[in-house]
Design goal:
The protein is of the alpha/beta class. Helices cover 54% and strands 8% of the residues. The protein has a five-stranded parallel sheet with strand order 2-3-4-1-5, sandwiched between helices. Strand 3, helix 11 and strand 4 form a beta-alpha-beta unit.
C-alpha cells in the first residue's frame, strides 16, 4: 500500500490539525473535507449539476438518505465547500425536536439566517455583510435600479432594508437601530414599541418566514451572489416527535418548503435524513416539487479500495498536522487492515487513535 499523494487543495498545518481533531471525536470537521473525501464522485457531480441550474435561475430540492454514521453530515459540509466555490451563500441547519423543530417554521427560519455563511467569511455570520454589500450597490446605483430592487420584495423586507439604510445614513447613523433591524431579520420577536422605532409593523412569523427567506435569496442574487443553499441535517427525524400534531405540522411545513421551491429562484434546499424518514413518508408522492426528477441521493458504504484511499489520506493529514513521518510499513498495515463498517466515523476514529499511539512511541 503506497502513501496517498496530496489531494487538490491539501490543507495547511492548522487546518489539518482541525480535521484530525474532529476525526478523533468521530465527527466531520467544519472545513477541509475535500482533502479526505473519497468515492463520492457521482454525488458531487450531481451537486455540481444542480448548483449550475440554480445559478441559472432554477430552484431545487434534494434529499439525502443515509443512516447514522454513514456520512450525511459529511456530505452536507462537503456540499457547502462546493457551493462556496460557486459563490453561493450557504446555511447548514441541524433540525431536532428540542433545539430546532420543523413544526415551528419561524424558529427554522431564524436558524437558517443565523447560519448563513459566505466564501469570503466562512466562519462568520453573513447577514450583516450581505446588507453591507447591498448598501454599497444601492448607493452607487441609479434611482431606477433602486426602485426595481425594492419593488420585487415583500413589504416586510422592504421595510427592513429602508430601516437599515436609514440607520446607516452618514448624517445620523445609529448602531442601535442597525442591531434592531438585524435582530428582526434573524426572526427575533421584538415588542411593538421596539419595532415602532425602526418602523416595522409585524414580526416575522410562520406564515411569512419562507417568503422572507425567498426575499433574502432574491436580494443576494441581486448583489452578485449565485444564490442561497439551505442544507437541513435532520438529527432526530420527524418520526421522533412525541405528539402526532407536531409531526403533522412538521410535514405540513416541509410541504410548504416544497411549494416555496416552486415559486422562488436561486434557492437550493437539501434535506438529509435517516431511512426512518423515508419509511414514514412517500417522498416522491408528497414532498417533491412539480417537475422534479425525484432523485434521492443515497451514499453507498465505502468499499475496501475506497477505505484504503481514505486511510492513506488520513495518514497524510495526520503527518501534516503534527509534522512527523509515520513508519511506512506500519501505516501500510493499518490501512490494509481497514474493513467496511456501518459507521465510517468509527473507522476513522480508530485509525486516528492508532496514529496517535504510533506518534507517541
Amino acid at each position: 500500500m503506497t502513501a496517498a499523494t496530496p489531494s487538490p487543495g491539501h490543507p495547511d498545518r492548522n487546518t489539518a490539525v482541525g480535521i484530525v481533531n474532529a476525526l478523533r471525536r468521530g465527527v466531520p470537521p467544519e472545513y477541509g473535507l475535500e482533502s479526505f473525501s473519497v468515492c463520492r464522485a457521482e454525488i458531487l457531480a450531481q451537486f455540481e449539476e444542480d448548483l449550475g441550474l440554480v445559478r441559472a435561475g432554477s430552484s431545487l430540492l434534494r434529499y439525502i438518505d443515509a443512516d447514522l454514521g454513514q456520512g450525511k453530515t459529511h456530505l452536507l459540509k462537503l456540499l457547502r465547500e462546493v457551493a462556496f466555490r460557486r459563490d453561493f451563500i450557504v446555511s447548514i441547519v441541524e433540525l431536532s425536536s428540542a433545539e430546532c423543530p420543523l413544526y415551528r417554521l419561524v424558529d427554522v427560519y431564524g436558524r437558517i439566517v443565523a447560519g448563513l455563511r459566505t466564501r469570503e467569511s466562512p466562519g462568520e455570520p453573513a447577514l450583516e455583510a450581505i446588507l453591507g454589500r447591498w448598501l454599497e450597490v444601492m448607493r452607487g446605483a441609479d434611482p431606477e435600479r433602486r426602485r426595481k430592487t425594492l419593488d420585487g420584495l415583500p413589504n416586510g423586507m422592504k421595510g427592513a432594508l429602508v430601516a437599515y439604510l436609514n440607520a446607516t445614513n452618514f448624517l445620523g447613523p445609529s448602531l442601535e437601530r442597525q442591531d434592531l433591524v438585524l435582530r428582526w431579520l434573524n426572526g427575533e420577536s421584538l415588542p411593538l414599541t421596539t419595532r415602532t422605532r425602526i418602523q416595522l409593523t409585524d414580526n416575522i412569523a410562520d406564515a411569512t418566514a419562507l417568503a422572507m427567506l425567498s426575499a433574502l435569496t432574491a436580494l443576494a442574487r441581486d448583489i452578485g451572489y449565485a444564490g442561497v443553499c439551505v442544507l437541513f441535517d435532520e438529527a432526530e427525524g420527524i418520526v421522533s416527535f412525541a405528539r402526532s400534531s407536531q409531526r403533522s405540522a412538521a410535514v405540513a411545513n416541509l410541504v410548504r418548503v416544497v411549494r416555496q421551491t416552486e415559486r422562488s429562484h436561486g434557492s437550493y434546499f437539501v434535506y438529509a435524513a435517516t431511512p426512518s424518514f423515508f419509511d414514514l413518508l412517500d417522498v416522491n408522492r408528497q414532498l417533491q416539487p412539480r417537475g422534479s426528477d425525484g432523485l434521492i441521493m443515497s451514499p453507498l458504504p465505502l468499499e475496501i479500495d475506497c477505505l484504503h484511499e481514505l486511510g492513506a489520506r488520513i495518514v497524510l493529514l495526520h503527518s501534516t498536522a503534527y509534522q512527523w513521518e509515520p513508519d511506512a510499513a506500519t501505516t501500510a498495515r493499518l490501512i490494509t487492515a481497514l474493513q467496511p463498517s456501518d459507521r465510517v466515523s468509527d473507522t476513522t476514529r480508530a485509525l486516528v487513535a492508532a496514529l496517535d499511539e504510533m506518534r507517541e512511541q
